[in-house]
Q: What sequence folds into this?
């Protein structure tokens, strides 16, 4: 994900307390700070098929902004907004045919620009990058060649991109950033990307964390385990003594320990000093494809108006994750969604649903879950809130699965995470039962 991790490197932020106070004071006065960076998803087209892609990139969508619209509705509006940095991303931005014209136009208007690319098409644009060097270029890395290719669904794009490091070509690019989003950096000796990054010419290494957006929502197994998170965080902390390594915004805040993992304390900029423009002109807080989060469309209202009047939930108190800038909004929004009586819901593995009022949820198979005030519902404790009849039904299915009934095992797998606690109990009581191996596999697939 390009996302706010890339935008974070484009500005040096003040102390979070000062920034937060200023933002809310301006909101009370009906004033708004100009954006520091605006990211544009220039196209949904991409020639890779990454399982974690936040935009489900692949084919170009039919209603993407035209060349004329991009100039008038975006670039000209950014000039009027005080010339924030324009971050170009995708999809793969270099697949858009008019991208040289758009970059040239933005530079002619005095805009600073940055880019996120998979690197495979960079060699074809060396002349463009020499004429209009970006302030920052981010290129993705998911491990050594085999791991990178497996994850991205295509050949060794990074090496092709690394061959045209702008400094090696005499360009004036100020910063090159490698983005790691695959295997844990030191998972085993054969898959350490450290030498790749060190030799690439990059001056910064951002470690991104999977977020369940776009195609990523279809691949929840990519969520790292707690142990993997601890290892990567420890790795980043050690390597900062040798190279500029940062945990990107999706990791959230480490509180007073932030100084060990990033240059500035985390305060999420979504809707406060940055936003994202979708390929079709939707104005979003961050790199989500959920149009329910849109504040408006450039084709309907000027960006200046959307920025000034929109995003109030990010600039005022009392809006949960939105107004609490101490965590990454993109990563947290799924676990803080508003709950209403009878809501159908899907509980993802790392979700925490906090209940501020007595709430009734509807499980697709087991019916109502009644949650008392103050409940923190997770994928591991949801079974505790099932009705007695539902728990009895679940235990009966677990017993059948223990005896080797494959239909019951399939039914159990379909009810994860509700069956999580019952599976653990059953395996602890009868570890050698006929169907125990199947139950362990279901449990391991969920936990891992």
A:
């Amino acid at each position: 994900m390009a996302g706010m991790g890339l935008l974070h490197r484009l500005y040096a932020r003040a102390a979070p307390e000062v920034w937060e106070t200023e933002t809310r004071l301006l909101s009370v006065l009906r004033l708004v700070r100009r954006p520091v960076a605006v990211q544009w998803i220039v196209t949904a087209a991409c020639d890779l098929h990454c399982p974690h892609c936040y935009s489900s990139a692949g084919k170009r969508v039919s209603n993407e902004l035209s060349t004329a619209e991009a100039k008038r509705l975006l670039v000209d509006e950014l000039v009027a907004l005080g010339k924030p940095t324009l971050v170009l991303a995708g999809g793969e931005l270099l697949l858009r045919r008019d991208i040289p014209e758009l970059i040239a136009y933005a530079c002619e208007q005095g805009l600073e620009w940055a880019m996120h690319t998979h690197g495979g098409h960079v060699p074809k644009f060396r002349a463009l990058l020499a004429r209009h060097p970006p302030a920052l270029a981010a290129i993705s890395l998911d491990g050594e060649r085999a791991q990178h290719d497996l994850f991205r669904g295509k050949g060794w794009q990074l090496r092709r991109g690394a061959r045209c490091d702008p400094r090696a070509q005499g360009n004036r690019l100020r910063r090159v950033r490698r983005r790691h989003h695959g295997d844990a950096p030191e998972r085993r000796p054969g898959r350490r990307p450290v030498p790749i990054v060190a030799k690439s010419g990059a001056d910064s290494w951002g470690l991104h964390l999977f977020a369940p957006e776009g195609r990523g929502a279809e691949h929840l197994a990519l969520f790292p385990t707690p142990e993997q998170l601890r290892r990567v965080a420890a790795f980043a902390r050690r390597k900062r003594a040798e190279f500029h390594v940062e945990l990107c915004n999706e990791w959230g805040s480490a509180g007073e320990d932030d100084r060990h993992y990033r240059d500035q304390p985390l305060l999420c900029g979504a809707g406060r000093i940055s936003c994202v423009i979708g390929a079709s002109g939707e104005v979003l807080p961050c790199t989500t494809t959920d149009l329910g989060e849109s504040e408006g469309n450039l084709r309907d209202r000027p960006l200046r108006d959307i920025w000034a009047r929109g995003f109030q939930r990010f600039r005022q108190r009392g809006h949960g994750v939105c107004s609490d800038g101490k965590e990454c909004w993109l990563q947290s929004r799924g676990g803080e969604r508003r709950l209403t009586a009878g809501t159908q819901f899907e509980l993802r593995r790392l979700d925490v649903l906090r209940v501020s009022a007595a709430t009734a949820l509807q499980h697709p198979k087991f019916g109502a879950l009644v949650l008392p005030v103050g409940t923190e519902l997770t994928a591991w404790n949801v079974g505790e809130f099932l009705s007695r009849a539902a728990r009895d039904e679940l235990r009966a299915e677990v017993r059948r699965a223990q005896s080797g009934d494959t239909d019951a095992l399939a039914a159990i797998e379909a009810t994860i995470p509700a069956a999580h606690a019952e599976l653990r109990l059953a395996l602890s009581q009868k570890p050698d039962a006929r169907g125990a191996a199947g139950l362990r596999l279901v449990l391991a697939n969920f936990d891992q």
Q: What stands out?
A: The chain has a mean pLDDT of 77. The longest strand covers residues 136-141.
